[in-house]
Every structure is written in C-alpha cells, then in structure tokens.
Amino acid sequence: MEHDGIRVVRSGERDGWAALVDPPGAIPSQGSETEAFTSPDGRFTAGLWRREPDTWAFERAYDEVAVILEGRADIELPDGTKLPVGPGDVLITPNGSKGTWHIHETIVKCFAIYDVKA
What we know:
It is globular and about 45 Å long. It contains no helices and 10 strands. Strands 3, 4, 5, 6, 7, 8, 9 and 10 form an 8-stranded antiparallel beta sheet that branches. A two-stranded antiparallel sheet has the order 1-2. A hairpin with a 2-residue loop joins strand 1 and strand 2. By secondary structure, the protein is mostly beta strands.
C-alpha cells in the first residue's frame, strides 16, 4: 500500500516475497525476504526477512539493526556466549561482527541495513 511515497509493508502478507537466493545453513532451510525501501545511493535498505529453523555462521559486511517480530533464536558469539532473541527484541549486528545463528522457531525480522561500501 502506497500514498505519496509513504508505504505500508505488512509482515503477514507474504505475496511478492523472494526466496532467499542461497540460503546458508546446516539443513539448509527455506527463507524469504522483501525489501521495503532502498535509498537512492543504495547504502540503506529496509525490509522483512523470514527464515525457518537452521544453524549457520555469519560475519557482517554492513551495519544492521533488526526487530524480531516472530520466532526464537540464539545468536552465539565467537567466545561461546549465547544471546537469545525473540519477539520484540532489537538485534544490532555492526559491520565486522561475527557469530552463529541457531534458529529454534521460524524467525521473522524487520531489518534496516547501512552499507558504507555500497
């Protein structure tokens, strides 16, 4: 839904979401996402992301702030610390951060990414 450039993207409406091109992970599980906004310079994007239970390591090449809308997971840090996340939590993963996702229940997150290299 859009009016004068203002849009509403509903997390429960999954029409038009694209399948994750190369879903990482041990299983690998299904996932999808939709971009709601990309800045003209391509450095800032925001959207919704969904992923079924799985486990995989990551290293961020950008800054991301995400709000977990549904599901539960642990983010395991390189030192073994586990950070549980669930609905209503804000997850901040700055450029260069590393860890492992352990998704226990299908996760839906709203993400905002800033990429200084774009």
